[in-house]
Design brief:
This is GNAT family N-acetyltransferase. This protein has 161 residues and is α+β, with helices and mostly antiparallel strands. It is built from four helices and seven strands, in the order E-H-H-E-E-E-H-E-H-E-E. It is globular, with a radius of gyration of 15 Å. The chain starts with a strand and ends with a strand.
Length: 161
Amino acid sequence: MLSVRIRPAGPFDAAALAAIFNAYLGKATLALEPLGEVDYLAVLDDPRAALLVAEGAAGVLGYAGVKPYSPRGGYAVAGESSTFFRPGHTGTGEGERLYRALLAAAYALGYRHLTARIWATNAGSIRFHTRLGFRLVGTQHAIGRVDGQVVDVVLMELVMP
């Protein structure tokens, strides 16, 4: 994927971002209700959030985002990060390039601690985050249910000096 461009997301990307996320409902996220354009427009309006997209000839292939970990002031340096690519567009190396750009954007926003919540069965995402410098904090056992199945979630963190 040599022609993939990393850029900030804009309002015109909201539908594509929602479609990408919704492809993972009940598979890699505990969100069970689809997100819509309005959900992404709200993130784009948040001055403490950042959304970046990986765009190729076929349009938006994936995105990475950071948002505040908590509304409480003491957590101002902490953000929650995530990334999603369209099915069939993972494992190309572009996700790492996109996420590294997100780390720079998060740092510019004042974040010094990022978290990632990942299904414990998602070994690929755990390896991906480990390559980026995240470390495993622990496992939240039986924190969710999807289609009657119990889901464990691992919490990973990255501390940026």
